[in-house]
Each structure stands twice: as structure tokens, then as C-alpha cells.
Amino acid sequence: MTTAPRSAAGSVDDTLGKVYDVCVDADGFALGGNDATSYFDCDAPLPGNPEFEVRHGGARYVFADADRMAKFAANPDAFAPAFGGFCAKAVSENDVFWVNPNTYIIQDGRLLMFFNDEANINTKAMWEDSNLAWGDGSHPDGGSMEERLAEADRHWKAGPPSVKQVGGGRQPKAQA
């Protein structure tokens, strides 16, 4: 199962020279190998089993069992993470960050993923704080989660941002 990439260019990993339209690990797994359907109906994501795999949108999705795999395969866009699985907060500010697959929310029926280095930065907490100024300077007085989601949608539909975040290190990239 495949879908067209959102643009000709995606997130660039300089060390490998690869371009990503979706946030995947070195083996091409989305969500760190977690079961995409479990984000919607479990308290924590379930680990996927490579025996139950669906390829969608340039990523490998694995599932805890055959029933969950069939559920995803019937409607992958309902379960695949928004914004290619990249950090929703970063996308709302026209940036791209890799994510922690255990840092997420379901907002308006969509799976939103977030960067969280578990020491200094938790972009999910920033997303939820309506008083926090946006990192791109566009909303110095903060903004609601709904405003952030609308901005993320606007940026994602417009194409790739000009700055990429890969593997935890900020790497400015010129657009080709």
C-alpha cells in the first residue's frame, strides 16, 4: 500500500543522504515500530510484530496482531500519524523534527507526534501550553492547540520547510 509523497523533497538525513517524506527509523519503520492502531485505543502504544506489516506512504507499519493490521490496511489514513509522523509543533512553525514515538496526543481524531529528548525539550508540553510564545516568532503571546494544528496543516500542505531537524541535531538546509 503506497501513497504519493507530499512533495519532491522531504526531510534530509545528511549522514545517509536520504530524503524522507515520513519520519522513519533506520529500518524504515514508522512510530518506532509501534502499532499505529494502538495509539487510538490503548493507554500506551503496543509494540508491533514484523510478521504483521503494511507499507504505506513510504513507511513500514507493524502491528501487534493480524486484526490490528487488517484494521489499518482498511483505512491507513485514519491511523497513520499526521504530518508524516514528524513533530506537530515543529511543523506548526514550518520546521521538521524527528519524534519520540511515545510522546503523542490524539487531537481531532488525528495522531500527532512530538519531539521529546526526555531531558530538556518536550514539544508536546509546549503544544499544550497556550501561553507559550511560538519558536518562530509568529505568535509571541502563544496560541491554542487548535491554532497550532491549523498552522501545521497550512505549512504541511505548502510543502517542505527550509530547515530540517534530523536525529536530534539542527541542520539548516537550502531548498533545491
From TrEMBL:
Organism the protein comes from: Phaeomonas parva
Name of the protein in question: YHS domain-containing protein
Compositional bias segments (type: Basic and acidic residues): 145-156
Region (Disordered): 137-176
